[in-house]
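for the writeup, i need someone to sanity check this before i put it in the appendix. the sequnce is what the collaborator sent (i think, or maybe the updated version? ugh). structure was predicted straight from it, no edits. if anything looks off just tell me and ill rerun, i have time this weekend
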Amino acid sequence: MTKIKTVDHLASIKTYEGVKPLEVIAEELNIPVAKIIKIDGNENPYDPLPEVLAALSSLKNIGNYPDILCSNLIQILAKKEKLEVNNFVISSGSDELIELLIKAYANPSDTVLSVTPTFGMISFLAQVHGIKHKAVSQQLVKKESFAHYVLDEDQFLDEANRSKIVFIARPNNPDGNVVSESFIERLVALPVLVVIDEAYIEFSDFHSLAKLVPQYENFVVLRTFSKAYGLGGLRVGYGIMPNDIRKVLVSIKQPYNVNIAGQKAAFAALSSPLVDQRITEMKKTREWFINQLKMVQNQLKNFWIHPSDACYVLLTFESPEIPKNLYEYLYSKGILVRYYSSSDMINNLRISIGLQENMVKVIDEIKLFLKGGN
């Protein structure tokens, strides 16, 4: 039999690895699912919003295809953002919009630009479509208890001049840093498509840049319902963009990309007063967690904490053995954090912010391990 070969550029692609299902981990560790503390995926730790549950329980006509344009959801988003309905595209998670933008605007000879480290789907989707991806390395700067990734803005702007699409996560994943609005304004002045991923903007003290969209023809902002609204499992995101770009993306996207349940849930979530309350609690927990880590760091001096404007905290350790062993220790206790095997991130662990009572257990176990009591 003849084996059919894939297109050439897929031969070297590395599969994007997601997280294991909780049921698999629970069986592996012989721990009830309810006892596992899952803080590896930057997911919302709270129970579903009551408004969302009510909307899902009232679903009807699920045998019919959903609204192609998600018209009701766009109407409420446009009102919320004080923009026009023709500035919005609803997507199956913001990942879909990253892919659509690459498909629509990058030729094989073009370059997609980002920083490193950042959200891995950018480079992954560029590779899937055979588009060159380039990443400008950020410099890791350590000072006292804290670490920061610092971007050479002039170098990035120089590379952007030779690129077709630029992606910037703001706040950045995995460190939670926020680049300045003035830098974005310098970037969008260049002849390049600028895409700002605001998946975690609700957890930041910096405001969204969506207000800038009407001022430019080359500026796109991506948002998601997966984080602050707790709808990760329903896969709903949206993009805010000029109408000309919107028309292109609508013309090439899958026609029924967001199902009825996702549309209903997202619409209902926007009306819930619990969203802001929960965000406030998570920000308080984040600051408490950082302060607890700082006390440990002051004693041991073997790791640094990244200040964060998102729903996670990145730790950089003095050697790669420490995060690897800490990850394995926490895993054995049913605490799931994000470990990195790539060479540029091998000294790091990312810890999502969960419920306060769970984060107390997490910090206790971290202290026990780092102080040698495991």
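The first helix runs from residue 22 to 29. The mean pLDDT is 94.
thx in advance!!
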